[in-house]
Amino acid sequence: MLLLHDQRPNYVTILSVIRAVGALNREEMTGVVHAFAFKLGVGSEVSIVTALLGLYSLHNDMIMVWQSFYGAEVKDLVLWSALVNACMKNGKFADALNVFRDMQVSGFEPNYVSILSILPACADLGVLPLGKQIHGFCIVRGLYTVTNIQNSLMDMYAKCGVFECSIKFFDRLRNMDLISWNTMICGSMENGYPKEALSFFHKMLKSGFQPDKTTIRSAITACSQAEEVKFGYGLHCYSIKSRLEGSVSVGTALCKMYADFGDIVSSRIVFDCLPRKDMIAWSAMISVYAQTGHSFLAFELFSQMQSANEEPNEVTLVSLLQACSSMKSQEFGKVIHGNVTRNGYSSNVFITSALIDLYCKFGQLAQGEVLFNSLPYKDIISWSSMINGYGINGFGDKALETFSKMLDTGLKPNGVVFTSVLSACSHCGLEDEGWKWFNHMKEHFGIIPALSHYSCMVDLLSRAGKIEEAFRFINEMPLQPDATIWGALLAGCKTVKGYVGIAEFAAERLLTLDPDNTSYYVILSNIYADHIAGLSLEMNKEGILEILLVSAQDIRNPNFIGKPCYYVIAHCGKQEVRSKTVSGEHKKAVWNEKLVLRFPFSDLENMAHLKLRIMDTSTFSKDGNFIGETRIHLGGVITEGTDKGFIELKPARYKVVLEDDRYKGEIKIGLKFKKLGDVQPTMRECVNLVHEKKSLRSMVKTIASLWLCQRWKFFFLRKKPNPVDVKKQS
């Protein structure tokens, strides 16, 4: 109307128009107003530039923000503060700090607005020294008593990890407001103190403050972290009473809380009751389904979201990729990949890392490498995804090589990266490398091993067949083992035979931690069945005992007539074998002959001794043809031979003892124990063995099923009444 009446607007009118465009969020009008301001000759006025700078920052156009700033003829404190604020709104925290320093170099002293703008940058970047300098500046300039600045200082100290300073600030506050309480509740959760956050919430209610949506949402999140179920139910009731349950932020927090408590149905009910659902609410519910294994429900909800004309964000797409991985659907994964490309997220590091992980789990390592190499910037998550991808596909050397390249870039690995490295070593059997990096975590990088790292090491030792070493490793852990660690040990006992006792102990711990998981019973029953079936097969093996006869000395019987002819009879269990007859003098008889005894393993208990008896057939003696015998203990020989497959002893001298103990002599022999292969059973024996194994498995599984029945468990585990207590009651 003003232009239609040929009236020339001044810079005040242009300022009003700029504010109106910002209030209406008319992004397409921003450039028009800017051009019109230049046409009128007021485009370089500091007030106009300040307003345009705020308008461009509202639309996330930082290029025009910088152009507007440098196009100003005069730069005052308000313009500098507006630029700091624009950088903060667009997440350019480092740029905000640089602008704040340049402002002081240019001779402008920070004011109330610029300090409130820069303190969040110190908090998000963790620049504690600069935050302390600003704190000191506020004390010197008398701004320390302003409540908003005090709240920002408390938030800065909490986000920098110095929560004790935040508590000191809070205790000294004279004029605390609702933002002060919200700052302490959020700071408690960020520093890992969810119960303290709930305590602050309780104190806030006692102080007479009415919580807002931010307070309720933070308290609900604290209930999830502290696992305070009843407190969470109370907050839900309070939100309904306060008419805040329709808030998207509160409803989303309630959905996540019920999901953390394992109540997916209630989580969906809260979601459906939301009068208005934004992208955050849709993404939160899809994430709940994906993380709890309900992949089909996640895709069904995604379809409903598209019907509601909501475009997915990066959180939604990552959750859907996680659902594809859980349901092992490569087709759905390719569909989501196409959606990522259409929505312009191809260069997003977060989503690309999820795609790398997905393709590697599907065995398409080449596609994962293409995506990894296409990233213009690789963060910790992308490196970790690629390392883990090499590991699960059996390329342990490439995983370690990729880890070395990451270290060369200057990135400092975190606990997640070390989990991927140790997992790769476990999958590929790289025991030495696994121990190396497990020890380097704390020594060189200052990372204290978590349960995930201990779980990888237990899995590494179990896969290597070192069950006893893995069991000792668990017992020496400084942390309490969880179900993942005991599960890795139990899986190792199933793969490596002969550790039934350790398997029973691991299963007992697993059932204590997760009593409703029936898979542990099945694994343990299979271990029992395999162990007994292995014993049955072991009984069908056979071995041989080889006796090398060398010579005998001083075995002459004084009561003989003629030239002696010696031979040896070897007795072992039920087996007996005779050597060839050898003629010799009474001083020495030489055989150099090998005697062989065959026997099944089932006769091991009858093979405690080997008895060698020297006989003489050609001489006449008052003792008949018996000259002497010796006994050799075979316990150690057979036991060691069973473990190693065979054992061979060099010829050794054994004393010959006659029955009447009158004649002494020595015999020199050598022993060799060999473990042969399986005895080929008959067809009937094979059928019987298969039936016995099947019946054994079914019997053990039946017992496990009965144990799972609550009535049977109650019957066996109920406490028997004490006779003394019965008498007292009577």
TrEMBL record:
Q: Does the keyword Coiled coil apply?
A: no
Q: Does the keyword Acetylation apply?
A: no
One Pfam entry for this protein is C2
The superkingdom listed in its UniProt entry is Eukaryota
Record-level Gene Ontology MF annotations: mRNA binding
Annotated keywords? Repeat
Q: Which residues form the C2 domain?
A: 529-647
Q: What InterPro entries is this protein classified in?
A: C2_dom, C2_domain_sf, PPR_At4g14850-like_plant, PPR_rpt, TPR-like_helical_dom_sf
Q: Where are the PPR repeats?
A: 76-110, 177-211, 278-312, 379-413
Q: Which GO terms describe its biological process?
A: RNA modification
Read off the SMART domains from this record: C2
Q: Which family does it belong to?
A: Belongs to the PPR family. PCMP-E subfamily.
Instruction: Identify the PANTHER family for this entry.
Output: PENTATRICOPEPTIDE REPEAT-CONTAINING PROTEIN, PENTATRICOPEPTIDE REPEAT-CONTAINING PROTEIN DOT4, CHLOROPLASTIC-LIKE
- From the Swiss-Prot or TrEMBL record, give the protein name: C2 domain-containing protein
